[in-house]
Amino acid sequence: MENQVILERLARLRGEMARRRIDFYMIPTADFHNSEYVSDYFKVREYFCNFTGSNGTLLVWREGAGLWTDGRYFIQAGRELAGTSVELFRMQEEGVPTVEEFLREHMTEGQVLGFDGRVLTAKEGRRLEKALSDRRVRIFCERDLAEEIWEERPAFPAGRITVLSERITGMSVEEKLAQVRSRLQDAGADSLFLTKLDDLMWLFNIRGCDVACNPVAMSYGYITRERQVLFLQGRALDIEAEKYFVKHNIEIRPYADVAGYLKKLPGEERVFVDPFQCSYGLFRLLSEGRQIVEGRNPTELLKAVKNPVELSHMEEIYLKDSVAVTRFIYWLKNRVGKEEITEVTAAEHLEKLRREIPEFLDLSFPTIAAYGENAAMMHYEADPESCAVLKPEGMLLVDSGGQYLGGTTDVTRTIALGPLSEGEKYHYTLTAIANLRLAGARFLYGCTGRNLDILARQPFWNLGLDYKCGTGHGVGYILNVHEGPQSIRWRFAREQQEAVIEEGMDITNEPGVYLEGKYGIRLENVMVAKRDVQNEYGQFMRFENLTWVPFDSDAIDEKILPEEDRKALAAYQRKVYEKLSPYLSEEERAWLRAETGSLDGEVEM
What we know:
By secondary structure, this protein is α+β, with helices and mostly antiparallel strands. It folds into 3 domains: 4-148, Creatine Amidinohydrolase, Chain A, domain 1, CATH 3.40.350.10; 162-295, Creatine Amidinohydrolase, Chain A, domain 1 (3-Layer(aba) Sandwich); 305-570, Creatine Amidinohydrolase, CATH 3.90.230. Strands 4-3-2-1-5-6 form a 6-stranded mixed β-sheet. A 6-stranded mixed β-sheet has the order 12-11-10-8-13-14, sandwiched between helices. A hairpin with a 2-residue loop joins β27 (525-535) and β28 (538-545). It starts with a helix and ends in a 9-residue tail after the last helix. Residues 601-605 have low confidence and may be disordered.
């Protein structure tokens, strides 16, 4: 069945392309700051093709259109693109060209490639320039063609700024600026042009509300050895924020003035810029007559290594969040089949429990509550009109998290609602084994996530199985739920750089099984890297869990548990009981004692 709304929008886009003599038009998933999640104003790709995932690039040409997205979204994209005429290109699958390869194959001499230069990174733009240079392709990047077509486009985001106290951040803005300036000096740069929103929030000890679930504000920063300039929208400021910026000698300029400001910078200025984050348009502007020092934003690594104050708050928040999730599991297991519970109402109840925590601010992302075969879609989003009703059988996967004044959480549990098949229990147990083996890792300092990924993935690879995503990502501190540079994965795209796992980095541990048309299983904890023993072989490292939510004993098949993994699971479950039991009701505590003590006898009260 054709999707007439999308077909009409694509027809209007092609008309605008023809008027401007653009042959191919590319729409990535990004805002002016290369954010992973964007406000409604920037959901241009979704507007033109109906795909709602957080990662994807739409390419439109006279005869057709294609969407490129990764393995997390293959099933979802296939459904959402139905009837739109947009072809799905499954990234990193054998025989599937990249956007760049597709353009090289299909663009001819002298044709024009168009995109909004504000939403494509400098790295991507320059790569396209190089790939298409032998065809003398011209690039048109001066306009967002959606401006001519999207008649009821949502307003540009401009929420209020919040200032965080040093009691929460653990460091003053002056201390953070000193660290950044030290790294600029090491790089031989005079200044830093900073565009990444979560880095800006971290550096200036502020938070915003311009992207749902991500406490960031639309902003730019320019830091020299003596000055710090922050570009913000006037509507985002209140008296408290204005006083804070004056107190800390932070110069505030209008957000819209950033291009004009950059144009006036002296030619001898050596400006540090991250081409992986800065937009193609602003990077080109800065490059005109100035010396550019390219590199990764120094703020990225500084932000990723949590300081002792941050870690202390995180431990408290993760404990409270784990209590809420555990209470949710108890509620669900005791209510399913006795009253109507849907994927949506289950998610709402979990949110209600989180909101009872005094430090709660918001969700860290929309809760994924996926029952049965819906869980095979990694980023499934339940629709209140068509969501599944839970039954006392099968499994519910719940991936969720909260933003708190003291931390950002991310946790996934797959919950047995009743009898499970032999396959379901087998795959759940396999996933638990994978999680525990990574959590128990001991490794030499200098390892990256590529070195560690095999610990979680090996149990699946032994059976010819895999999951089409990374095993772990960093998590922000009252910031974005996905944070770099640390990650645990075996394959890195060209734009990704491996990062050494440093003490104080937090990272998720989330292996899983996804069988289309059957079920999905994921078990996710957040861990923090710690120093372990140091000897003649070097500095050893280990992980320590921040998440303390029980694994589901009803889904564990003890017959396939190797002895070492059984001991590791029993130790984790015992620790869960010790940490959570003081905060539960008598009934909840009795249930948790039975849930966590099944592998090694009674748990002591």
